[in-house]
Records
---
Amino acid sequence: MKILPAITAFLAAIFLTACQTTTVESASSAPTKKLTRGTSIYVVTPADGSYGGKQYTGSGVAVSSAFEAALSRYADSVIVGERQGSTAEAVAAAKEKKCAYAIIPKITRWEDRATEWSGIRDKMELFVKVVRVEDGAEMASAEVKGKSAWATFGGDHPEDLLKAPVQEFVSSLF
């Protein structure tokens, strides 16, 4: 009889940890100088991610929204822009909006897998550049990654993996 509560607690712990997301953020280069708080920051909306021939519509908007939310703690204003073809185009668009910095993310991996039955994790990877608009100097660049737990019970998607690693990267800039 006393073993039943212990088994129940053990199973509950397994179920709760299996549903949690694992996130990893690894910076490729530390900021050459910390960004100034209270400025305007331009965030480029990246092209939507794809995997195995499937295009994930809205994934680019999810990425720019994650950066907008994370940056709003540090900036006076965060302006989310359209897709830009090159860094120079992104900097020109940011300059037009009178922003001090441009955040230029690119989705390099976006895998929405059926983890609940396959055990294959959802994955999200971004390459991000931070550019000072005034002179076009690259302030930092990073790979931002996230992957789901190996056992989930549905509901996980790559966009659910964005918040923690994006916030961690953004906080490293200030």
Note: Strands lie at 21-29, 40-44, 50-51, 54-55, 77-81, 101-111, 123-132, 138-148.
---
Amino acid sequence: MSTALLLTEPEPFLERHLRSDGFEVVDEAARPDLVLLRDCTALEECRARHGDVPVIVLGDSHSDAVDRVRALERGCDDFLVRPFSYEELLARIHAVLRRTSPAPHEVRRAGAITADLATRTVAVGDIAVLLAGKEYELLLKLMTDPTRVFTKEQLLRDVWGFRSLGRTRTLDSHASRLRRKLAAAGAGHVVVNVWGVGYRLL
């Protein structure tokens, strides 16, 4: 999906190059992803019309450091003084979009199992699986390398923070509950106990 840019004043040279670089140059009726504004005094009107959209001001050649500071204080995301190179404008556009774009959810997948790290939700296909805190953390650890056998020492250290193995059934009991919950959602035979070593997911 292309990024929608709004130039508040027609600039055929910029429009042509931006389109050739894959941007969609839109008009005032559209909802832009970024606005290229000629004058920061129009910022409030721009935000009233388009919401909290990122704005780069393309200032006149007589603009100075004070103009730049005032523009940033008013809420502009960047300020570029004319004359500027198209390559610099393009770099500034990409930088502003990186700063202002929401971070995508990191989602881990292993077979039919998905774990959304931002929302801490787990599903098998379309079926949600409710996990307790350590069950969830154990699953995430196993999902980092689903076919690898993690030793009990590794899992107890990384998930529970244990420094020595000792005699504990904590890992085994959590792995058993995790296995039952995933199987009930249709994941099949997962969370495999490799006898004498540890666990793997698939």
Note: The chain has two domains: 4-100, 107-200.
---
Amino acid sequence: MWKKKSVITVCTFCMLIGVGSFYLGYRYLEITHPIQKPISGQSVSQHVSDHKSDEAQELQSIVAGIQQEITVSSIPISKITPSTKLVYEYYYEADDQLVIEEEEPPYFLLNMTRDDLQSKFPEWQIQSFSSQEVVVRTYVRGQSPNRYRIGIHNGYVAVFYEDPVEGIYLKDITETPVASLTQEEQEELTGGVAVLGDDELLRLLEDYTS
């Protein structure tokens, strides 16, 4: 009887050891190699939707970049043409005067872009640039050229000084009577003709008195 109980006890003990070993082994595998839980149907759909959304956003970015590149490349570059108005601004630092002159662009400036003009003439500051008008400015350390005004004094063509401080005052009276000029010239002199510099003064006086 005692032997039978001993056998049962030993068998029971072995079974407990076996079950314990299996449990411990399973827990070890579960900890060291965790099993990925399957994604539910809703999670899978959400994952696929997010992936498609990312691809759509990336595609939209690429398309937007191409459209922007096409738009930029299609903008015409402004160039100087024979009809462009060229405006020179001379700022004389000594007497704080800004002298503005307008003329048609010379042949060597034709077809130049803004970058071409700035590279060729770095001393000029480009104020504005378009095919219709180009405005450039340069700074001069000296004084501005003499300013004159050709007008009428006692019925004769006369020359006046035009000073920014002292105003307009008589310089010289010519021997040319205003009555000898054309009606258009008389109207010009009645309002006064502004002149900049001695060279321009001599040229205009020759036109009026010849």
Note: The beta strands are 85-92, 97-103, 125-129, 133-140, 147-153, 156-163, 167-177, 193-196.
---
Amino acid sequence: MKQVFLKLLAWWKLAALPAILKLGFWGAGAVALLDSSSIPVPMDAILAVFVWQNKSHFWLYCLLAAAGSAIGGLLPYGLGRAGGELFLLKRVNRKRFEELRDRFERQEFLAVMIPSMLPPPTPWKIFVFAAGVFEMRVGPYMVAVFAGRLVRWLLLALLVLKLGPGAVNLVAHHAVTALALVAVLVALAILGWWLKKRQEKTEARP
């Protein structure tokens, strides 16, 4: 088994990765689609290489990667929708299932968007399966994944531009800090949106 893994790793580094890098923007989307749908790949590291090689178009790589992730995520979403409650219960215990259900009942969009923003080891596919199980509509689901991934990879790209490709290791070794930072940013964004809506309602009153 170890030899098979080493052969696959060598094939990835020597053949697959160089071929993907030659695809440019579309390569970022293709890898993200593969990562979200079926085969996990080191997406952050690959995107960092893309960004470092073409710094002036970093935003385009992030955009296509987010789109690819949203499209690829339709597969686990569909499996969750087809399998229903029993499908999810094979992957989480009853307590975790009820917590996920409550989260989706309160705010299903954020229940998908926030995990999509967070770096590994966030169990992203559990939330994607849950979106299907709890019958979240396809449109909002894809927008939530796209928005979350775009925020995550734009932040990563900015770190890569500032610190170099080693920024991926920085995020990996400080995952808890990264989680906290993203959570704070999301909370501030939601608070700003709520205050704006409240002000608009106040101004609209006679």
Note: The mean pLDDT is 79.
